[in-house]
Design brief:
Length: 229
């Protein structure tokens, strides 16, 4: 009798287990047609329409450059660009357009002041060495009793061709192309060199410098030369 009751208990437990399995499957759902359902991969790149999927691939983000890799390949940055970048880092307010405008104005002032023998005006714009050269030329001219007349055609083009930092000082070289009429007269007013109203093209290379740590915002002319060739 006891064995019969134990057999009935086993059957009852089995029926309860089958019922629970059926309930769980109705809640969780079945795998569609035996295919394994996958969890959504947020890094998975879906295949383009009409193309087969190449597998569960990760999204390919651009590679992050290593710290040892320069931002631009060697050779893409010219020495001029590198020099201007150094000056910009030392003096964030540096602007090439404003600088060229100021350098052009300084060029015209210096040319006219040299012709007029205005040492005071030259002193404010030139370094000591350049001033001594200009003053020496003025003295030599005066010792001969000669006078220089210089006219600019009004159109002077300027282009930065060199730039670099030397310690705390910035150096910028500008190429000036101008049309000038230069006439030298003797003490009697007679023309000894040049022709009136004859303008000739003149190309100069002028280098300006400024201590980027100094409070004085002005640049000084530190060298003048003519292009080679």
């Amino acid at each position: 009798m006891g064995e019969g009751l134990q057999f009935l208990d086993i059957i009852l437990f089995a029926m309860v287990a089958v019922f629970l399995v059926l309930r769980l499957r109705s809640v969780l759902g079945r795998k569609p047609d035996g295919e394994q359902q996958q969890r959504l991969n947020p890094f998975r790149r879906e295949p383009a329409e009409g193309k087969a999927d190449a597998g569960d691939r990760l999204v390919e983000f651009p590679a992050r450059p290593s710290r040892s890799t320069p931002e631009a390949p060697v050779g893409e940055i010219s020495p001029l660009e590198a020099g201007l970048a150094q000056i910009k880092r030392a003096e964030p307010s540096f602007d090439t357009t404003i600088f060229v405008t100021g350098a052009t104005a300084a060029f015209e002032i210096v040319v006219n002041a040299f012709a007029a023998g205005d040492r005071d005006k030259l002193r404010t714009l030139l370094s000591n060495e350049v001033y001594d050269n200009f003053a020496g030329a003025i003295d030599a001219r005066l010792s001969k009793g000669e006078a220089l007349e210089t006219k600019l055609s009004g159109t002077t083009t300027a282009q930065i061709v060199e730039a670099e930092m030397r310690g705390q000082s910035a150096f910028v070289t500008v190429k000036f192309a101008s049309e000038q009429c230069n006439i030298t007269r003797d003490g009697e007013g007679r023309i000894v060199d040049g022709e009136p109203n004859r303008f000739e093209g003149v190309t100069d290379l002028w280098s300006f410098a400024r201590n980027t740590r100094a409070r004085d915002p002005n640049w000084t002319l530190v060298e003048t030369r003519t292009p080679q060739g």
